[in-house]
Specification:
The chain has 303 residues and is an alpha+beta fold. It has helices spanning 12-20, 61-76, 114-127, 160-175, 182-193, 237-244, 252-260, 268-287, 292-302; strands at residues 8-9, 26-32, 39-45, 50-57, 85-91, 97-103, 145-147, 150-152, 206-208, 217-219, 225-227, 233-235. The strands form four sheets. The protein has a six-stranded mixed sheet with strand order 1-5-6-4-3-2. It has a two-stranded antiparallel ribbon with strand order 7-8. A hairpin with a 6-residue loop joins strand 2 (26-32) and strand 3. The protein is globular, with a radius of gyration of 20 Å.
Length: 303
């Protein structure tokens, strides 16, 4: 499974020329709301094509090269829909910006059994081979990427538990150190030192979406679920499922169908909050004190 090479251009004009040929221009721009990190637009081209564009400051082009690599990894499993990657690039117009062009997802009516199908497709993605995503196998990813606006460390590990400690919890706790008092710091150290008391090694490594909440699942024109805005890495499949339950959750029939697919070993519910500690720490580091009570609750529960 060779990775797709994503084209990179030095201007939006050059990108459109390469993709669609001479004479194709932007006929209209529609602002799309909903994102916290990037600006998003629908671009109507003069030939009638409609595409999706994300932009950010020029120096943040790595946001988009990492997102494209994540979408490509998911697409390579051939398990679930993702938008087609068109290209990335930078442009000097308006003071300079970076951009990512993607297929525009035109939502349709959900198919019958939408949530059960999503569960089956996600299980297929979690079951797909992962050796090509991590050099030498194991856990991590071919390079670091982002969880929201913050860097996500993906250094290769042989052990899932060691990876989750070294690359997920420890970096977040270090950045959030100023939020905690002496007694809480002692609890954090105890938790990190005894993760193997709570977590288990999976039967197989799985490619994870990495930020799998409802806002990153869209209905495609085919009526089935498509995944967007990934923060991919190879880890334990149940970490993805835990994330789906953090902000509202999916319908019960999704979880029932996912269990029927053979995942979620016994004890998952006892581990769920520990997986979501990573996501809550990331929110604490991005957005502040409102997430501290939830973080402290989990730390105290497991320490």
């Amino acid at each position: 499974m060779a990775a797709t090479t994503v084209q990179h251009f030095i201007s939006l004009e050059d990108a459109l020329y390469s993709l669609y040929g001479d004479g194709i221009r932007i006929a209209g721009v529609d602002r799309i709301t909903g994102g916290d990190i990037n600006q998003a637009y629908g671009l109507r081209l003069t030939d009638g094509t409609y595409i999706f564009m994300k932009t950010n400051e020029k120096q943040n082009i790595s946001f988009f090269t990492c997102e494209a690599a994540g979408l490509d990894a998911i697409a390579r499993t051939k398990a679930i829909g993702t938008p087609r990657i068109l290209c990335s690039g930078t442009d000097e117009d308006r003071g300079g910006y970076s951009f990512l062009l993607l297929e525009f997802i035109r939502g349709g009516r959900q198919i019958a059994g939408y949530w059960e199908t999503l569960a089956q497709q996600l299980a297929a993605m979690h079951r797909a081979p992962t050796e090509d995503f991590v050099s030498g196998g194991g856990y991590g990813f071919s390079h670091d990427n982002y969880i929201g606006a913050r860097q996500q460390v993906n250094a290769r590990h042989d052990s899932w538990i060691a990876f989750f400690r070294d690359c997920r919890l420890e970096p977040q706790f270090r950045h959030a150190e100023h939020f905690f008092g002496t007694s809480d710091r002692k609890k954090i150290i105890k938790l990190l030192d005894h993760l193997d008391k709570y977590l288990v090694e999976p039967e197989r490594p799985s490619l994870l979406h990495g930020d799998l909440w409802s806002g990153n699942v869209m209905t495609g024109s085919d009526g089935s679920a498509w995944l967007i805005d990934p923060a991919v890495y190879v880890g334990h499949a149940e970490a993805d499922i835990a994330m789906t339950e953090l902000f509202g959750g999916f319908p019960r029939k999704f979880y029932a169908a996912y269990r029927e697919a053979g995942f979620l070993p016994p004890g998952y519910c006892d581990r769920r909050e520990l997986y979501n500690l990573y996501q809550l720490l990331n929110h604490l580091n991005m957005f502040g004190y409102m997430y501290l009570p939830s973080v402290n609750h989990i730390v105290r529960r497991y320490s």
